[in-house]
Amino acid sequence: MCGERRLGTARAAVLVAMALVPVSLTGCGRLDQDAVSTDLKTLQSSTAEGMLVAGQAARSRAPADFIEIRTAELSKQSKNMANALAETPTEHGFQDAANRGNEIGNRASELLDALHSDPGNSNLATNVTHELRALHEEAGAVESSL
Amino acid sequence: MKKVLQIALGVVAALGGFVDIGELVFNSQAGAEFGYQLLWTVPIGVVGIATYAEMCGRVATITKRPVFDVVRQRLGFGPGLVTLIASEAINILTVAAEVGGIALILQLYFADIPFRVLLLIGAAAIVFLVWILPYDGIERIFGYGGLCLAVYIVAAVHLHPDWGDVASGFIPHWQTGENTLIYWYFAVGVIASAMVPYEVYFYSSGAVEEGWDESEGDLAVNRMNALFGFALGGVFSVALIVVAAILFHPLQISPEFLGTTALGAQITFGETGLLLAFLGMMFAVGGAAIEGSFAGAYAFAQFLGWEWGKSKKARKTKKAPAFTSAWMFLFVLAFIIDFTGANPVLITEYSVVLAVVALPLTYLPVLLIARDERYMGEHVNGRLADTLGVFYLVLLTVVSLVALPLLFATNHGSG
Hints:
The structure holds two protein chains of two kinds. Chain A is mainly alpha-helical. Chain A contains five helices and no strands. By secondary structure, chain B is mostly helical.
């Protein structure tokens, strides 16, 4: 009696596992809408904050060390998001947004790295401010289109 | 006059104890994500911590017993041990978050020095200060230094918020829509960061260390410290939320670095603002690191019956070697955690949310003793303290049940 019950439990477990295989395969290793959206929102955040930091650098209102560390952290965050959007394929319909997010993240990272290397250059900081603003708006538009 | 000075010092100490890396992180994030909508959670946390700090101080003054003594006595050895283990785990995470926070703050002005070197410098400086300073010196230096964070109060006013919108943020409301879980995660975070258990361990042990006595009017001092100190701390929290709501919310910035919080003061007042924010954060976070490590050492000592203390008497007689070893051990553990490369901001979020789980176990025995006439005599809880105590215990129990699911469901607030 007890053995039959154990056998029944094992069969049920195998059936559940078999049912879960196709379910897991359909989304396995792919970015869904939420994941792409979250990464794009993080890019919106890092480009916006980068824009504020660059704005302060452009007006020489912050010490170089502060600009250096903030641009380094934000550059890394943008790069991480760019990589996350590029490394994993998306579910159907979100690949274009992910590709664009990847480009935005890489460009933002480049801009922030440039300012990190030359935090006292107010002309560079002004240009970085403008470009990061455009990237911020674009990241928002791509995220809204999902 | 002496009493007024004592109250003023106590208020500053309570204020310094209230604002730590948890407040700096959660309040900025709450303001940036939801504007003024989560302001209502600040008074809930402030009234809760003031209620239980007053109770702990009163129990310590009347019975001469600090919190963990009470925990062991009322809960018994087994449940007391569970509380001790949970509290120590949280204390280690808290100290790790604060010590890592010190290094992150130092980075704002010393970007070229590697993070791990700043970590070593910060931890060594704190241990050195604790070693050489007396108890009241630690309280005063870090309490007064933390007042530099008033730059956020001035910034909040200077940024001209719509005061009608600010006022409406204090009305609790139910959030619906796609961000519901994140909203409640931050609501829990703001309340929990105000009520973290180390604050009451430190507060009540301090009352015993300073020899508070009913006959010398120390019950009034206790009431004033708890009420005004934590209320002022609440004003700091509100200011952090308002500044983040004005500067970061419209741009959809999600603060994930302490530097973002500093940016709020920097944008408003330039280099002066940044310097004040830097100093205020340094003292507030440094003070919290000391309080967290002491709270852990107090808990061990009081539960295990060791000699404990940092007062002049304890230092002169050198009778608390195990206590001293315990707080140093906590610093070393915290340093090792940070040295592995763990993100202090992430540690903060985990430590605050995990602390919620231990809160009912910490506050239940305090409430039981404070309302027990056999211990407290005529100083037993009045109707207001009792009602608030029971209300917060129920609230914290509910919050402790949802805290961890919210942490994981929202990916610690990232969505």
